[in-house]
What does this fold into?
Amino acid sequence: MAFLARRLGAAVLLLGVLSLLSFVLLAAAPGKPENLLLGPRPSTPETRAAIRAQFHLDDPIHERYLSWLGGALHGDFGTSVYTREPVTSIITERLPVTAGLATYALILTIGVGIPLGLAAAMRRGGRLDQGITLTSLVALAVPPFALSILLLYGFAVTLGWFPVFGAGETAAERIAHLTLPAVALAAGEAAVVVRQMRAAALDLVGQDYLTFARARGLSLPRVWISYALRNTALPVLTVGGLLLAANLTGALFVERAFGLPGLGELLVTAVARKDIPVVQALVLLGGAVVVVVNLLIDLTYLAVDPRVRHGAVAS
Amino acid sequence: MTAVSGTPLFGGRVARLRRTRPGFLTVVSAAVLALMALAAIGGTWIAPYDPAAQDVALGASMPSWAHWAGTDDLGRDVLSRCLAGARSALLWPVIVTLCTCAMSTTLGLLAGYRRGWVDAIMMRVVDLLIALPGMLVLIVLVGVLGGGIGWAVLALAVLFTPGDIRVVRSLTMAQRELAYAEAARTLGLRPTRIMFRHLLPNIAPTVVAGALLSFVAGLVALSGLSFLGIGLPAGTPDWGLMIEENRTLLDLNPWASVIPAALVTIAATAATLLGDRLFERLSDAA
Amino acid sequence: MLLEINGLTIAGPAGTIVDGVGLTVAAGEMAGLVGESGSGKSLTARAAIGLLPKGLRASGSIRVGGVEIVGTAGERVLRGLRGRRVSLLMQDPFSMLNPLRTAGAHIAETMPGRATREEVARRLAEVGIDDPSVAGRYPFQLSGGMRQRVALAAALAGDPELLIADEPTTALDATTQHEILALLARVQADRGMGVLLITHDLRVAFAICDRVSVMYAGRVLEQGPGTSLAQAPAHPYTAGLLRALPSVEYTLEHLTGIPGSVPPAAQVASECAFAARCDHATTRCRASRPPLREIGDGRLTACVHDTLPRLTARDVATGTLPTGSGEPLLVVDDLVKRYGTHTALGGVSLQVAAGETVGLVGESGSGKTTLARSVLGLVTPDQGRIELDGLDITRRRALTRQERARVHRLVQCVFQDPSTSLNPAMTVGATLAEAATRAEPADRLAPGDLLELVGLPPGYATRRPKGLSGGQRQRVAIARALAVRPSLLICDEPVASLDVSVQAHVLELLRGLGRELGTAMLFITHDLAVVRQIAVRTVVLFKGRVVEQGDTATVLDAPAHDYTRRLVAAIP
It folds into this structure.
């Protein structure tokens, strides 16, 4: 329980820091805040004064932070200075694309990464292992945006197998439109899983307890489920947080490269337009996702590893 | 402590097996990186055209005898821009790597060797920085606040350092408990001497491999920022920026974006491969 | 026969490791397989259960309960044999159990059919665990001895006819070791099962095994009943091992190790493997490989000579040890060190006189290493006082620069683990030269002289630690400590990780240095026989307290404290 309390505390602290960071962003951005908030519209001293009043810009900064945070906690992130729409509705409109892309990539990552990692470990040193290890190394190094361009050129432009831009309308179209982006996003993540899985499996093979289990004549399914899967799950889980961060930033590049109207694309555009309320909301949202997923990973740890459960290891 | 006799059964033998002559891929990777480094140094002299020279009348064109890799929409020679772009694409990541390496090695050694409050404070900060969705924060900070490539490089170094500090620190902590390190302390050697003369050589393989990985991460991150139009001013010859500026020309001259994309990929792959192999060889030799 | 091994050869990528081993285990028999590290005994054990590490191949014949398992048998056949016909108990209780599974789960999963709670409790009771709640505990919640008991119960859960026990007590404390061995012997007798006990400890093997095979460089050199082997070894190697074995009963005049080191099996394939290190070696020994031949009484030897080697060392009169001047050099007074709620040292007081060697005996967790580290300044004690040559060194930070430099010259240390005692990145010469810079200019010795002091050729200065054997590394570590001419040398289990034959050399070296240089020593060990050979006085530490101290002879021959008595009784 102490473990969980500590993790919860850290999560709250992290969100606090993130919210502070994204709030301070507005104050620190070059130019006067009212000009930023006005966006591209023509301004008169009157409109500027109105904006100052509307956003309480003359209040002390900590009060403004608290009222912004209060709004954020109720799902109110203000309005976009560019489109004048509520930030929340812009985000909900864009969310499905990114969520679809992330889920698709996650399925690919796990579906490809775990079997390949295991296969490489089982054929250690063989051609299959060398091939998988090398491929994963390359996939690990390739930046998602470069891979996106290469995939686009190869499979969409030259071969014409997949659509070039956009997100598609029907479900089937969606899948077709999202396939290349999901591959571009998943490649690096799958590589991480492959390497981690391979290392975990090799480590397991070297463990005395596995030899001891085999020496007692345990059946194969028993060895696989009680030993191999459970014991390798932990080291693979530890990279979960890393994967998520890669997923978030990767989505940014991939969405832009494929012209997908998702949250990543929204963030990049908002940054370019200095649409601060949108940026703030997205940073906070991204941070919240990272924090929540890391908490989930900790919970899984708690469920799988008795040492953590009984506080024997301070992790 | 009770005696545990008997040696690990196969550690030595397996290690010896792996210690073969440098493989084909290692040589190729090193050669590729060397070539790219040459381009970074002398690319602007070899380049057939001035990378900034425009030929708006020509516009985007497919490869031809005059322009081996074609031109972009402003009629600039893609080949020349790729050669010239090597400099900014590789130089900045090198600076990121040097900064990261210097900071993480010094701080990691200090935290791992000294422990106590130095370590406690440093680890709190490190934990926080690691938990932040780093690239996201970086994009927002540099994108909104401006400040150009210099700030981006600095921010990246700050972003990469915590992870490496953790690695160096845990290795240092493991080494410092070993008998040779305790013997050095018993002899009354100066802490700096113990840290840099005794501990550092034994964690060097990881530091070197980590440096190559930092280089890759820096390369990917910086060209990624350029790809998002953040950092370098528009029009600078740079691989990431070229991909961004020419990606809409896939039908007119795909090479204008495909070649820089391939170059970034190849550079990153070569450095990763080299780091991976170097790490294996160095850790075997120890 | 439960196990019949014939002409077993195991080869890896680097060549042959085990070469033509033959041995048998019958029902109801406790067979021993002894050898130093690298002799191939553990691999032989692994091969016998079909679990050789990847990359190694076995040839020859191994029959388990009549079933041949070399070559033809697939994984299916082996899995049928394992657990029910043959089972394995391994060395390290801390790594043998799956950290994510409970003790009970380990036992239950091995039992044929469904395991009830009562049955698991009964199995635990068989290995001396009467508390059934242990079944629900995880390995990390159990002590080393308990884990080894649980592992034994798990290994026996399938009711095997044959148990292969690979160094089952090596990682345990002396008293626990004693208990586990007794338990193993009892279970073996109760079940009428066959046991193949693999150990590096000659005393253990000779004490509890019906028949013992002595392995060296991948082959068996001698076989026979344990007691007769101990009294009249028929192979010079066995004799050498016995001679090197420190006695717990008296202090030997000379400790004689075996010169040289073990050759790789592949290098000595067609000669006597021991010839290069043997006093009796003749050209016959190198001409061909001597086969194991019978010499009566169920004994076999691979020595070509008919005369048996003599065990001379045992007859020699008691040796003497330097007693020191009586002037106190190190005074430890009421030292306390706590780690959280754990008390490592609970008020320890002891003295070491100049030139005297004091033994510090205790098991893991007794606080002996914490005490050493406190004196060395690697740990700051919570309470109490440490005085060295009249200087209060309890808190190193409180000392002036000059005082600190003086302390570093007064006390040095030799650590336990030879594999980490030297910096792998530095040559031996660089290590010694660096240490010498800390000495008084007048005392400064060159690396070559320091090496000579510890009996190594000066040419070793250019080598790196990787190119040295364990014993040689410990010698260099001793030379490094001596480079500053310390008055007090703390030896923290310096021979615990070494093979017997090497251990004797290092002990003899330390004894000689004590005599010639007049260096006082605080010698930390868990081995009473070692303490008998080196220390005039002995301090017994138990759970952070001194429970007994006095003349080594008195402490060992007439122990006053209950714990010391248990320690003495635990000697095999």
